[in-house]
Amino acid sequence: MTLPDAGAPGARTGAGAGAGAGAGGTLVGVLGGVGPLATVLFMERVARLTDAARDQDHVDMMVLQHATVPDRTAFLLGRSTDDPGPVLAADARRLARAGVGFLVLPCNTAHAFAGAIAAATSVPLLSAVDVTVSAVLSDDTWTGRLSGSRPEAVGLLATEGTVESGVYLDAFAAHGIKTLVPDVAGQAAVTSLVYDGVKAGRGGDLTTLEGVVGDLRLRGAGAIVLGCTELSVAAEATPGDLLPGVVLVDALDELARATVLRAGRRLRADG
Protein backbone atom coordinates (compact mmCIF):
# COMPACT_ATOMS: atom_id res chain seq x y z
CA MET A 1 0.00 0.00 0.00
CA THR A 2 1.26 3.49 -0.83
CA LEU A 3 -0.09 6.68 0.64
CA PRO A 4 -1.89 9.28 -1.43
CA ASP A 5 0.15 12.40 -2.03
CA ALA A 6 0.22 14.91 0.80
CA GLY A 7 -2.59 17.35 0.30
CA ALA A 8 -4.46 15.11 -2.15
CA PRO A 9 -8.13 14.28 -1.58
CA GLY A 10 -8.38 11.52 1.00
CA ALA A 11 -4.78 11.95 2.15
CA ARG A 12 -4.11 11.18 5.81
CA THR A 13 -2.68 14.02 7.82
CA GLY A 14 -1.36 11.49 10.31
CA ALA A 15 -2.46 13.42 13.37
CA GLY A 16 -2.50 11.09 16.31
CA ALA A 17 -1.42 8.05 14.29
CA GLY A 18 1.57 6.02 15.37
CA ALA A 19 2.66 5.29 18.91
CA GLY A 20 5.38 7.50 20.29
CA ALA A 21 4.60 10.50 18.11
CA GLY A 22 4.82 13.97 19.58
CA ALA A 23 1.70 16.07 20.09
CA GLY A 24 -0.04 16.63 16.79
CA GLY A 25 2.39 14.55 14.75
CA THR A 26 2.97 11.06 13.40
CA LEU A 27 6.01 8.89 14.01
CA VAL A 28 7.71 8.33 10.65
CA GLY A 29 9.53 5.09 9.90
CA VAL A 30 12.56 5.62 7.65
CA LEU A 31 13.82 2.63 5.68
CA GLY A 32 17.33 4.01 5.47
CA GLY A 33 20.89 3.10 4.62
CA VAL A 34 20.21 2.79 0.90
CA GLY A 35 22.46 4.72 0.72
CA PRO A 36 23.69 6.00 4.07
CA LEU A 37 24.61 9.55 3.06
CA ALA A 38 21.31 9.98 1.24
CA THR A 39 19.43 8.94 4.37
CA VAL A 40 21.31 11.49 6.46
CA LEU A 41 20.59 14.18 3.87
CA PHE A 42 16.91 13.22 3.84
CA MET A 43 16.71 13.66 7.62
CA GLU A 44 18.44 17.03 7.36
CA ARG A 45 16.06 18.16 4.62
CA VAL A 46 13.04 17.18 6.71
CA ALA A 47 14.37 19.20 9.65
CA ARG A 48 15.24 22.25 7.55
CA LEU A 49 11.91 22.22 5.71
CA THR A 50 9.81 22.01 8.89
CA ASP A 51 8.28 25.20 10.25
CA ALA A 52 9.62 24.82 13.78
CA ALA A 53 10.44 27.22 16.58
CA ARG A 54 11.52 24.52 19.06
CA ASP A 55 12.52 20.85 19.18
CA GLN A 56 8.95 19.75 19.82
CA ASP A 57 7.73 21.25 16.54
CA HIS A 58 9.85 18.90 14.44
CA VAL A 59 8.96 15.56 12.85
CA ASP A 60 9.43 12.41 14.94
CA MET A 61 11.37 9.82 12.96
CA MET A 62 12.54 6.30 13.68
CA VAL A 63 15.41 5.58 11.30
CA LEU A 64 16.68 2.11 10.42
CA GLN A 65 20.06 2.80 8.78
CA HIS A 66 20.42 -0.63 7.18
CA ALA A 67 23.42 -0.13 4.90
CA THR A 68 23.89 -3.87 4.24
CA VAL A 69 20.65 -4.25 2.27
CA PRO A 70 21.70 -6.02 -0.97
CA ASP A 71 22.40 -3.79 -3.95
CA ARG A 72 19.14 -2.97 -5.67
CA THR A 73 20.53 -2.27 -9.12
CA ALA A 74 22.68 -5.39 -9.19
CA PHE A 75 19.63 -7.54 -8.51
CA LEU A 76 17.35 -5.74 -10.97
CA LEU A 77 19.93 -6.11 -13.74
CA GLY A 78 20.49 -9.80 -13.01
CA ARG A 79 24.04 -9.27 -11.81
CA SER A 80 23.23 -10.65 -8.36
CA THR A 81 20.80 -13.20 -6.96
CA ASP A 82 20.80 -11.47 -3.56
CA ASP A 83 17.21 -10.15 -3.43
CA PRO A 84 16.74 -6.89 -1.49
CA GLY A 85 12.96 -7.37 -1.38
CA PRO A 86 12.74 -9.72 1.62
CA VAL A 87 15.29 -7.61 3.53
CA LEU A 88 13.33 -4.39 2.96
CA ALA A 89 10.13 -6.22 3.88
CA ALA A 90 11.67 -7.42 7.15
CA ASP A 91 12.85 -3.88 7.92
CA ALA A 92 9.35 -2.56 7.26
CA ARG A 93 7.94 -5.09 9.74
CA ARG A 94 10.49 -4.02 12.37
CA LEU A 95 9.45 -0.40 12.03
CA ALA A 96 5.78 -1.34 12.01
CA ARG A 97 6.19 -3.19 15.30
CA ALA A 98 7.72 0.00 16.73
CA GLY A 99 4.46 1.82 16.02
CA VAL A 100 5.30 4.08 13.07
CA GLY A 101 2.37 5.71 11.30
CA PHE A 102 3.84 5.47 7.81
CA LEU A 103 7.06 4.51 6.05
CA VAL A 104 9.40 6.44 3.79
CA LEU A 105 12.19 5.06 1.63
CA PRO A 106 14.84 7.60 0.58
CA CYS A 107 16.09 5.41 -2.26
CA ASN A 108 14.49 5.60 -5.69
CA THR A 109 15.75 2.24 -6.96
CA ALA A 110 14.38 0.47 -3.89
CA HIS A 111 10.89 1.56 -4.93
CA ALA A 112 11.01 -1.32 -7.39
CA PHE A 113 10.45 -3.47 -4.29
CA ALA A 114 7.50 -1.46 -2.95
CA GLY A 115 5.28 -4.49 -3.55
CA ALA A 116 7.31 -6.60 -1.15
CA ILE A 117 7.07 -3.87 1.48
CA ALA A 118 3.32 -3.54 1.01
CA ALA A 119 2.87 -7.31 1.35
CA ALA A 120 4.85 -7.32 4.59
CA THR A 121 2.85 -4.78 6.59
CA SER A 122 -0.32 -2.73 6.55
CA VAL A 123 1.68 0.39 7.42
CA PRO A 124 1.62 2.46 4.20
CA LEU A 125 4.64 3.62 2.25
CA LEU A 126 4.81 7.25 1.12
CA SER A 127 6.21 6.85 -2.39
CA ALA A 128 9.09 9.05 -3.50
CA VAL A 129 8.14 8.28 -7.10
CA ASP A 130 4.53 9.37 -6.63
CA VAL A 131 5.37 12.64 -4.88
CA THR A 132 8.00 13.49 -7.52
CA VAL A 133 5.58 12.89 -10.38
CA SER A 134 2.97 14.95 -8.52
CA ALA A 135 5.45 17.82 -8.22
CA VAL A 136 5.96 17.82 -11.98
CA LEU A 137 2.19 17.73 -12.52
CA SER A 138 1.35 20.42 -9.98
CA ASP A 139 0.49 23.89 -11.22
CA ASP A 140 1.64 25.20 -7.85
CA THR A 141 5.11 23.84 -8.54
CA TRP A 142 5.48 25.76 -11.79
CA THR A 143 3.89 29.00 -10.65
CA GLY A 144 5.61 28.92 -7.28
CA ARG A 145 8.92 27.17 -6.70
CA LEU A 146 9.90 26.66 -10.36
CA SER A 147 9.62 28.68 -13.57
CA GLY A 148 8.04 27.90 -16.90
CA SER A 149 5.15 25.59 -17.70
CA ARG A 150 4.48 21.93 -17.04
CA PRO A 151 6.72 19.91 -19.41
CA GLU A 152 5.61 17.36 -21.98
CA ALA A 153 8.80 15.37 -21.36
CA VAL A 154 11.23 15.03 -18.47
CA GLY A 155 14.80 13.82 -18.37
CA LEU A 156 15.55 11.16 -15.77
CA LEU A 157 18.91 10.90 -14.03
CA ALA A 158 18.84 7.65 -12.07
CA THR A 159 20.58 4.33 -11.57
CA GLU A 160 20.42 1.68 -14.25
CA GLY A 161 18.23 -0.29 -11.87
CA THR A 162 15.68 2.50 -11.58
CA VAL A 163 15.57 2.92 -15.35
CA GLU A 164 15.26 -0.83 -15.89
CA SER A 165 12.48 -1.17 -13.30
CA GLY A 166 10.36 1.42 -15.12
CA VAL A 167 8.99 2.94 -11.92
CA TYR A 168 9.37 6.49 -13.21
CA LEU A 169 8.72 5.75 -16.87
CA ASP A 170 5.42 4.06 -16.02
CA ALA A 171 4.37 6.71 -13.49
CA PHE A 172 4.98 9.60 -15.88
CA ALA A 173 3.45 7.75 -18.83
CA ALA A 174 0.23 7.33 -16.84
CA HIS A 175 -0.07 11.13 -16.97
CA GLY A 176 0.95 11.56 -20.59
CA ILE A 177 4.50 12.70 -19.87
CA LYS A 178 7.40 11.14 -21.76
CA THR A 179 10.50 10.13 -19.82
CA LEU A 180 13.85 10.59 -21.56
CA VAL A 181 16.92 8.73 -20.29
CA PRO A 182 20.61 9.29 -21.08
CA ASP A 183 22.36 7.43 -23.87
CA VAL A 184 24.86 4.68 -23.02
CA ALA A 185 27.75 7.07 -22.38
CA GLY A 186 25.54 9.43 -20.40
CA GLN A 187 24.20 6.63 -18.22
CA ALA A 188 27.76 5.47 -17.57
CA ALA A 189 28.58 8.97 -16.30
CA VAL A 190 25.54 8.89 -13.99
CA THR A 191 26.48 5.43 -12.70
CA SER A 192 30.06 6.51 -12.04
CA LEU A 193 28.97 9.55 -10.02
CA VAL A 194 26.57 7.44 -7.96
CA TYR A 195 28.82 4.44 -7.29
CA ASP A 196 32.41 5.64 -7.72
CA GLY A 197 31.68 9.04 -6.22
CA VAL A 198 28.97 9.32 -3.58
CA LYS A 199 28.55 5.68 -2.52
CA ALA A 200 32.33 5.22 -2.42
CA GLY A 201 32.71 8.23 -0.12
CA ARG A 202 34.69 10.20 -2.71
CA GLY A 203 32.04 12.87 -3.14
CA GLY A 204 31.42 14.60 -6.44
CA ASP A 205 28.91 17.04 -7.87
CA LEU A 206 26.74 17.39 -10.96
CA THR A 207 29.56 18.99 -12.97
CA THR A 208 30.32 15.65 -14.62
CA LEU A 209 26.70 15.42 -15.79
CA GLU A 210 26.49 18.86 -17.41
CA GLY A 211 26.78 17.36 -20.88
CA VAL A 212 24.23 14.66 -20.06
CA VAL A 213 21.74 17.26 -18.91
CA GLY A 214 22.39 19.35 -22.01
CA ASP A 215 21.69 16.37 -24.25
CA LEU A 216 18.42 15.59 -22.47
CA ARG A 217 17.31 19.19 -22.87
CA LEU A 218 18.14 19.15 -26.58
CA ARG A 219 16.00 16.05 -26.91
CA GLY A 220 13.03 17.88 -25.41
CA ALA A 221 13.22 17.50 -21.64
CA GLY A 222 11.48 20.46 -20.02
CA ALA A 223 12.67 19.39 -16.56
CA ILE A 224 15.35 17.12 -15.19
CA VAL A 225 14.38 14.69 -12.44
CA LEU A 226 17.07 13.73 -9.95
CA GLY A 227 15.75 10.20 -9.50
CA CYS A 228 18.57 8.92 -7.32
CA THR A 229 19.16 10.13 -3.79
CA GLU A 230 22.95 9.88 -4.28
CA LEU A 231 22.51 12.50 -6.98
CA SER A 232 20.70 14.61 -4.39
CA VAL A 233 23.85 14.37 -2.28
CA ALA A 234 25.94 15.41 -5.30
CA ALA A 235 23.58 18.31 -5.96
CA GLU A 236 24.39 19.66 -2.48
CA ALA A 237 28.00 20.13 -3.57
CA THR A 238 27.18 21.56 -7.00
CA PRO A 239 27.88 25.25 -7.70
CA GLY A 240 24.62 27.15 -7.92
CA ASP A 241 25.46 28.61 -11.33
CA LEU A 242 26.44 25.32 -12.98
CA LEU A 243 23.13 24.63 -14.72
CA PRO A 244 21.49 28.03 -15.32
CA GLY A 245 17.95 27.78 -16.59
CA VAL A 246 17.69 24.04 -15.91
CA VAL A 247 14.61 23.01 -13.93
CA LEU A 248 15.71 20.31 -11.49
CA VAL A 249 13.06 18.30 -9.63
CA ASP A 250 14.81 16.48 -6.80
CA ALA A 251 13.04 13.32 -5.61
CA LEU A 252 14.66 13.54 -2.18
CA ASP A 253 13.41 17.11 -1.76
CA GLU A 254 9.91 16.14 -2.79
CA LEU A 255 9.87 13.17 -0.41
CA ALA A 256 11.10 15.37 2.44
CA ARG A 257 8.36 17.96 1.82
CA ALA A 258 5.67 15.30 1.61
CA THR A 259 6.98 13.65 4.78
CA VAL A 260 6.70 16.89 6.77
CA LEU A 261 3.09 17.34 5.68
CA ARG A 262 2.11 13.69 6.13
CA ALA A 263 3.55 13.76 9.65
CA GLY A 264 1.16 16.58 10.52
CA ARG A 265 3.73 19.39 10.53
CA ARG A 266 3.96 22.56 8.46
CA LEU A 267 6.48 23.54 5.82
CA ARG A 268 8.58 26.65 6.27
CA ALA A 269 7.39 29.55 4.14
CA ASP A 270 10.72 29.54 2.29
CA GLY A 271 10.72 25.73 1.91
Task: Tell me the layout of helices and strands.
Layout: E1 28-32, H1 36-49, E2 61-65, H2 72-76, H3 84-97, E3 102-104, H4 114-120, E4 125-126, H5 128-137, H6 139-145, E5 153-157, H7 160-165, H8 167-173, E6 178-180, H9 184-198, H10 210-218, E7 223-226, H11 229-236, E8 248-250, H12 251-262
Parallel strand pairs: 1-2, 1-3, 3-4, 5-6, 5-7, 7-8
Could you explain the architecture of this structure?
This protein is of the alpha/beta class and 271 residues long. The protein is globular, with a radius of gyration of 18 Å. It is built from twelve helices and eight strands. Helix 1 packs across helix 12 and helix 9 packs across helix 11. Helix content is 42%, strand content 11%. The strands form two sheets. It has a four-stranded parallel beta sheet, with helices on both faces. The chain has a four-stranded parallel beta sheet with strand order 6-5-7-8, with helices on both faces.
Notable traits:
271 residues; alpha/beta; four-stranded parallel β-sheet; 12 helices; 11% strand
Structural class: alpha/beta
Strand numbers in spatial order across the main sheet: 2-1-3-4
Low-confidence stretches: 7-22
Q: Report the count of strand segments.
A: 8
Beta fraction: 5-15%
**Apparent shape:** globular
Radius of gyration: 18 Å
Helix content: 40-55%
Average of per-residue pLDDT values: 90
- Structure annotation, total helices: 12
Distance between the ends? 28 Å
Major beta sheet summary: 4 strands, parallel
